């Protein structure tokens, strides 16, 4: 498959493509105008694009993708009143082995989390699977942002942390739709929000980060990936290290 995320392409070009696809299907962005809480600025983009040390919530603009970048593209869609939320981190050509490894470990942690999600289980089963894998590579999971229930609204209960939180856990039951989204830093997990745009979340120590997300449906005896192509395959899988 050939991807639009390539050196020299502007992040606004990726956004324009997403808008074109939304239009084609009669869908809208679940992010545009979103306010996480009263008093916060409304999100001004249609998708989020976060590069390198940026973790999530980057706003598309004139910036160009460069060789070796890690480009997280996060897309939330409202289609006929139902919301799907998914993200992938593209490894742009020329990335070094450490960069590629971060993407692969984050991707694998998402799938370990998905495997751990079971009817009758708990959110912490997912959190533990993600965290254990990530930390075995001496990387860190972000604490300040978490996965979430999704479906009618973008953010629903339960929260789905990527770390085991002894103060929070919730049961998983058939019929639930959740977005699992590991955000992984090569360095420490502390993050800060850009003072310039009020949105972009980056690692305080400027370490590289990667982010993958799927919305999944928990059924009685299996889970279904919802944020995939028509044939059930994923839009992007990072290269083997
Ligand atoms: N996948 C992200 C999340 O669930 C994207 C939200 S962007 C926002 O938090 F603009 F909608 F906040
Ligand atoms: Co999400």
How would you sum up the major sheet? 5 strands, antiparallel
CATH superfamily, by name, is Creatinase/methionine aminopeptidase superfamily
Overall body shape? globular
* Proportion of strand residues: 25-35%
The CATH topology turns out to be Creatine Amidinohydrolase
Q: Nearest-angstrom radius of gyration?
A: 17 Å
Rounded to the nearest angstrom, the distance between the terminal CA atoms is 19 Å
How many domains make up the 3D coordinates?
A: 1
Could you characterize the architecture of this molecule?
The chain has 241 residues and is of the alpha+beta class. The chain has one domain (11-225): Creatinase/methionine aminopeptidase superfamily (Creatine Amidinohydrolase, Alpha-Beta Complex). The chain has helices at residues 11-25, 97-116, 123-135; strands spanning 28-29, 48-51, 54-56, 70-79, 82-91, 140-141, 147-149, 156-160, 177-180, 183-185, 191-193, 201-203, 209-211, 214-218, 223-225. A 5-stranded antiparallel β-sheet has the order 8-7-9-14-15. Strands 1, 2, 4 and 5 form a 4-stranded antiparallel β-sheet that branches. A 3-stranded antiparallel β-sheet has the order 3-12-11, with no helix packed on it. Helix 2 packs antiparallel against helix 3 (123-135). The model has no long low-confidence stretch (mean pLDDT 97). 2-amino-4-trifluoromethylsulfanyl-butyric acid is lined by residues 31, 34, 36, 43, 48, 56-57, 74, 76, 85, 87, 148, 154, 181, 213.
